[in-house]
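Researcher: We are triaging several targets before committing to wet-lab work. For this one, the compound of interest is flavin-adenine dinucleotide. I'm pasting the protein sequence and the ligand SMILES. What I need is the predicted three-dimensional arrangement of the protein with the ligand bound, expressed as structure tokens, so it can go straight into our comparison scripts without reformatting.
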Amino acid sequence: MRHSGVTVVGAGLAGAEAAWQIASRGVRVDLYEMRPSRMTEAHVTPGFAELVCSNSFGSLSAYSASNLLKEELDKLGGFVLSVAREFEVPAGASLAVDRVKFSEKITNSLQSLPNVYVHREEIREVPASGVVVLATGPLTSSDLAASFCSLVGQDSLYFYDAISPIVLFDSLDTSQMFFGSRYGKGNPDFLNVPLSKEQYEELIYDLTHGEVVGAHPFEKEKYFESCMPIEVLASRGPKTLAFGPLKPVGLEVPQTGKRAYAVVQLRKENKFGTAYNLVGFQTKLKYGEQLRVFRKLPGFAEAEFLRLGSLHRNTFIDSPRLLAPTLQLRKEPRVFVAGQLTGTEGYLESSATGLLAGLNCVRLLEGQVPLRLPVDTMLGGLLGSITDREKKNFQPMNSNIGVLPPLENLPKTVKRDKQARNAAYTQRALDSLEGWLNENVRFQFRDYVQNEDRLKGDCTRQLRPE
Ligand SMILES: Cc1cc2nc3c(=O)[nH]c(=O)nc-3n(C[C@H](O)[C@H](O)[C@H](O)COP(=O)(O)OP(=O)(O)OC[C@H]3O[C@@H](n4cnc5c(N)ncnc54)[C@H](O)[C@@H]3O)c2cc1C
């Protein structure tokens, strides 16, 4: 063994990927997983990379954000994704898997690597020394969460998310909206959607009659006042929203010179100004209901939603303040964070961060500078988004084109055509990743393959340059 190795905590989607990437490069991994001796509220098996709910890794549609991330992971040698593809089950345009075979293959593959030492035990404190990957996910055990809090700060670890829908700016009819901030304070950063009394009442009706997603038993009635689902707030009384997040005071409508009955405010979601979120619209309404209800808002008829709203029990850190795009804690670079803890969301995204964390652990051990992915790739853009220091009110993010820097000079016809526009973003991302791989990684992959005779076969297969 060339190094003392890496401690990976959590053998979920991110930890399994990180462990594989590290071990495949000939470095010892001590992989800690608390199941089955201590289960989470959602896991039911002792298997690694258990899919706790749906069995879908998202869209396979050409040019979708999720498919782009898959193409990038294929190029980077993603282990978890390769197993998902192996155990694919028919699911239309999505990549769904046989969850039992998928988890079995990942568990067996890791356990059979000679340099992976599996410890079935709970880690209660962040290891005090050595290179560590923390990948304990949305249901991180409470003792470890407390220890993590003392490392990063009490206010830097969150236990619930409250995600508002995010919409593509270019898809809105902004002639029915106006920029401004309440009472003209600060920059006019908000995009305001004025509502008449009738429009407001229809919205309240829709919110309070829409179908909602049921909460898991461990999530029930734990909402904080500041991140209450909008439909719960609306159900408190017909005027609650008009006196709360939709209050019109201090926002004169330039088109009429009057105050609206209520105002929906949209806040910039990214520094490019290409995506906006609906302030205060965290919701448990089903996705179909959200589309139906929110597309009725003035100027939203053609709205393209980059993500829809949700609320979950979750554990994640304040990544804009704490994390570097290399997935190292800024104040303690020997500690890497991966998976849902970083504030990314989803099985695929978790495995993607596990991959980069694993790769960078090895580089750190070998005295090389940890890598950053180009920001115009889906993974690089996602990491850029969650670690953007200017970001306030941080909430978890999944892959979507709103995390990518805008393509300048796209003809209007292409901008308006979702397929053509996304094709252009996809091409740029894949070209960019190709260049990055050639510059940074391929030659090292070749070195590993030549040096690590012991890790032949499956382990090296994915590391070979094409
Ligand atoms: C109820 C629920 C439903 C979800 N449904 C979906 C869905 O349908 N689709 C989707 O894409 N995403 C879903 N998610 C999000 C999903 O959890 C993540 O996408 C993904 O599993 C996160 O990967 P991870 O590696 O960060 O965490 P996990 O996959 O959860 O892995 C973390 C691992 O760490 C272990 N662990 C925790 N604490 C410790 C400790 N102290 N010591 C040792 N081991 C520890 C856990 O046992 C677990 O195995 C859901 C989450 C929850 C909670």
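Researcher: Any quick observations?
Model: Residues 9-15, 32-35, 40, 42-43, 52-54, 122-123, 135-141, 144, 216, 339-341, 346-347, 350 surround flavin-adenine dinucleotide (CB under 6 Å).
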